[in-house]
Amino acid sequence: MAARNNSISLPPNHTYLGQAKWGIIPVSIVVAILLVAVSDLLLYKRTKFGRYTIALGANRRAAIHAGIPVNRYKVYTYMFSGFMAAVAGLLHLGKLDTFSAFHAEGYLLPTIAAVVIGGTALHGGLGRIWGSLAGALFITMVINGLVVAGLSYFWQQVVLGMLIILAVAVYTVTGLRRSPGTGKGP
């Protein structure tokens, strides 16, 4: 008995974000750069949402004492995160021209590695969007190199885990991670 193919091809308007190009530039790259720029403006250019979100991530108790409506901004932050995840899902859906609940199953460790290597503190309150983008580009190059080298998926995950440990160790030992504008570490 032949195996059933559970994937279905999507209409062209659903795959536009993932497969279309403007000249030689993929639309997905343009969308991603626009979202990174808007996120940077929203979080780091002195907006109320950005200040409150960073304060909430840095120290929840201090944010409460400062009069920040913590629960409300926690919900706003989850809404923003959910919106970004939905856009990423649409880009991924358009690129693959099919869908499954398990398509992005292996993306958690590379995502964490990209953010940590980009300079974001795991405990919150420190980090930049552009650093995370640089970390994502670095991790993508590392993963592509490991695939070309013929390493199995297991060893790729081991290398990514070691990169996370190395990045955290370097930031901890050298004190490279600084609070924006203060010159002081965490």
Structure description:
This protein has helices at residues 12-19, 27-44, 48-58, 60-65, 70-96, 108-117, 129-149, 153-174; strands at residues 21-22, 25-26. The chain is 66% helix and 2% strand. The protein is mainly alpha-helical and 186 residues long. Residues 179-186 have low confidence and may be disordered. The relative contact order is 0.10. Helix 6 (108-117) packs across helix 7 and helix 6 packs parallel to helix 8. It has eight helices and two strands. A two-stranded antiparallel ribbon has the order 1-2.
Please outline the helices and strands.
Elements: H1 12-19, E1 21-22, E2 25-26, H2 27-44, H3 48-58, H4 60-65, H5 70-96, H6 108-117, H7 129-149, H8 153-174
Antiparallel strand pairs: 1-2
Helix pairs in contact: 1-5, 3-5, 6-7, 6-8
